[in-house]
Automatic annotation (TrEMBL):
Origin species: Trema orientale (Charcoal tree)
Protein name, entry field: LL-diaminopimelate aminotransferase
Required cofactor(s): pyridoxal 5'-phosphate
A Pfam family the protein falls into: Aminotran_1_2
The keyword 4Fe-4S is assigned to this record: no
Protein family membership: Belongs to the class-I pyridoxal-phosphate-dependent aminotransferase family. Alanine aminotransferase subfamily.
Lineage: Eukaryota, Viridiplantae, Streptophyta, Embryophyta, Tracheophyta
Catalyzed reactions: glyoxylate + L-alanine = glycine + pyruvate; glycine + 2-oxoglutarate = glyoxylate + L-glutamate
GO BP terms, alphabetized: L-alanine catabolic process; photorespiration
């Protein structure tokens, strides 16, 4: 019989090439164990509310009123909702053409894009144009939209940091492009060396690949480092010299757990560098309501902002955005509230600050508990999580463990993570899903489990790890960095 279009053998080959480790083999096994009644701690994905983080009160009040506008007509509404939440709900409903059930402009509601532009202006000290901001269903959709616009075929390469967030490898595969890795240096706290970038570009060009864009994830996922201003200047100069578009994944900009290296946006550094760089380097920056102290992953709200992108290209991106008619409207309102939160003097300000500070301070403590916990384990080394939501410890696997993994038909860190899952219920992601240097093994875990549960989780990890090492160590040596 002839093959049908949706028979596996006749599918689009690009779809078959897609790998997405965050929801891969480990996650599927964890889901099976959960169905069998085992308690699973899902630390495989940055999903704060799933691990017990409470939503911020004010944005939920505003969106609740927008979702149920008849409440605004109830004479008792003021008993249930603060006056500033009521005022903001009326404000956002006035921006729509029929409430939350109506499509918006394909770029998002103009009023909310204006609020995003004002936020960027306050953050960076340089004005932003709302016409160059598109609201999206989470940052991931924006990243995919831009990669789809850039990649013309297999000969087009995108520079991606390794270890990388698998959204990039998956989307580049899906659109038929080529991922060009540049390696972050673990011994230098996951720093970025421009010489390494040059080598990566030269190697890609020697294979006939045209490198078109460069991705930075700042703060880093899965590595948790924060880029310094000096490093960002080097990156922007490199993009200027090599004629690359810079894609700035800045979704963790609120998640900073140390004071030495605050978040600085790529756009702020670009604008500060002056002409010709500030006028010529093409930059697309991404942000979301899914991360930070908001953690509203399920709402799917995000934006991207374009700098130095020609008007004709913006029109083409708008045309493609129009195919989906409209980004999720409730999520657009969440985004508006994130970029324009309660101000000093507002009724809800004190509660908003108390809640958001409480989440960030707890995350800072959890980052420290987890880093110290990993570093107390046999054959485990871990850089401190400066920002984002993840720990990325290196597991120095003994040769016998590597041999046992090969015998089981598993990549060594997958083998380790599966054993960890079966023994403890802790669901992580093997480092091989993010890319790593040959012969070096990691796992990624979020720092999101509840603070009161963290000591027990780290104790459980330590017990498993030390027993694993005892079982497989032959005291002749380990895998090296």
């Amino acid at each position: 019989m002839p093959l049908k279009a949706l028979d596996y053998e006749s599918l689009n080959e690009n779809v078959k090439k897609v790998q997405y480790a965050v929801r891969g083999e480990l996650y599927l096994r964890a889901s099976e164990l959960q169905k069998e009644g085992k308690k699973i701690i899902f630390t495989n994905v940055g999903n704060p509310h799933a691990l017990g983080q409470k939503p911020l009160t004010f944005p939920r009040q505003v969106v609740a009123l927008c979702q149920a506008p008849f409440l605004l007509d109830d004479p008792n509404v003021g008993l249930l909702f603060p006056a500033d939440a009521i005022a903001r709900a009326k404000h956002y409903l006035s921006l729509t053409s029929g409430g939350l059930g109506a499509y918006s402009d394909s770029r998002g509601l103009p009023g909310i894009r204006k609020e995003a532009a004002e936020f960027i202006g306050r953050r960076d000290g340089y004005p932003s144009d709302p016409e160059l901001i598109f609201l999206t269903d989470g940052a991931s959709k924006g990243v995919m939209q831009i990669l789809n616009t850039i990649i013309r075929g297999a000969g087009d390469g995108i520079l991606v940091p390794v270890p990388q967030y698998p959204l990039y490898s998956a989307a580049i595969s899906l659109y038929g492009g080529s991922l060009v890795p540049y390696y972050l240096e673990e011994t230098a706290n996951w720093g970025l060396d421009v010489n390494n970038l040059r080598q990566s570009v030269a190697e890609a060009r020697s294979k006939g690949i045209t490198v078109r864009a460069m991705v930075i994830i700042n703060p880093g996922n899965p590595t948790g480092q924060c880029l310094s201003e000096a490093n960002l200047k080097e990156i922007l100069s490199f993009c200027f010299q090599e004629n690359l578009v810079l894609l700035g994944d800045e979704v963790y900009q609120q998640n900073i757990y140390q004071d030495e290296r605050p978040f600085i946006s790529a756009r702020k550094v670009l604008m500060s560098m002056g002409a010709p760089i500030s006028k010529e380097v093409q930059l697309v920056s991404f942000h979301t309501v899914s991360k930070g102290y908001w953690g509203e992953c399920g709402q799917r709200g995000g934006y991207f902002e374009m700098t130095n992108i020609p008007p004709q290209t913006v029109d083409e991106i708008y045309k493609v955005a129009s195919i989906s008619l409209s980004p999720n409207v409730p999520a657009q309102i969440f985004l508006g509230l994130m970029v324009n939160p309660p101000r000093p003097g507002d009724i809800s300000y004190d509660q908003y600050i108390r809640e958001s500070k409480g989440i960030l301070e707890s995350l800072r403590r959890r980052a420290r508990i987890m880093t110290d916990g990993f570093n107390s384990c046999r054959n485990v080394v871990c850089n401190f999580t400066e920002g984002a939501m993840y720990s990325f410890p290196q597991i120095r696997l003994p040769p016998r463990a590597i041999e046992a993994a090969k015998s089981a038909g598993k990549v060594p860190d997958v083998f380790y993570c599966l054993k960890l899952l079966e023994a403890t219920g802790i669901s992580t992601v093997p480092g091989s899903g993010f890319g790593q240097k040959e012969g070096v093994f990691h796992l990624r875990t979020t720092i999101l489990p509840a603070e009161e549960d963290m000591p027990a989780i780290m104790s459980s990890f330590k017990q498993f790890n030390d027993e694993f090492m005892e079982q497989y160590e032959d005291h002749r040596g380990y895998s090296r960095m």
